[in-house]
Here is the input.
Amino acid sequence: MVKFLIVNEWIHHKNKLALERMLKYLNYDYMYGDANAENIKNNDVIYIASQIIDIYKYPNKFFIFGPHLSVFPDHRIEILKDRKNCIYIQPSDWTTNVWRSIGVDVRMKTLPFSVDVNKFTPGENKSNVFVYIKRRDPNEIGYLYKFLNKFSIDYHEFNYVKGYTENNYLDYLKTCKFGIILGAHESQGFAIEEALSCDVPLLVWNTKTMNQEYRSSYSNIECTTIPYWDERCGEYFYHNYELEDAYLQLTSGLLNEKYKPREFILENLTDEKCGEKLKAIISEFYNINY
Here is the structure.
């Protein structure tokens, strides 16, 4: 059995819970602890989410770093250069490709963290609409409000900056026929994926570059709001003048039962699907006898 050490440090709570479910699916023995010599000695795989350590003393152990050190290229990762027993993970391809585009000489892989599909399940009575807002230009938000008023769309707003509880979000998702997302960049996008898991089709005002994020200090790095998506999930657009047409396409698709967002999640982001990707990463870079 693979012994897996999760180093005690900051891990996004969604990632932490997902990793535990993935490891249980794989039947890996895991523990939490510090990255001291004894703990590393007693485990096969060492996962460190938000820092980098020099691993030259442990050539027979496999280290997984990330993704919380940085979404974007960071010089601290250079200490891993030429190390064959480690990998840095990102939760989606676009973030992985940002690092690769500047020629980072460290092994990198895309590893999404699973969605809790047993918790985020569809409801029966779907008549409501939700709007999810995260770090977008107030002018864009105002434009969206005017559009909602024009079409007399009643909605409940969830605002990432102002905060909300997961239980309230889940309870409301179960009542929704669709949702509207005006979000920022997402390296994975759990809130979006959880809505899809509840079988709620989405209308997404997508991003193309990081400088679209409100008060952003980022450079003009390509990005997206929906790193996991296909035509079953809903509709998306990039410019305000496209909003009305995208909305009409969504409403038409809803009438024709075009969308199957939960099906997409079940095919791509379950504990089993993500767990198998984790297993493949370990198998490729470290010869563990399963």
Remarks:
- The chain has nine helices and eleven strands.
- The two ends are 7 Å apart (CA to CA).
- The mean pLDDT is 93.
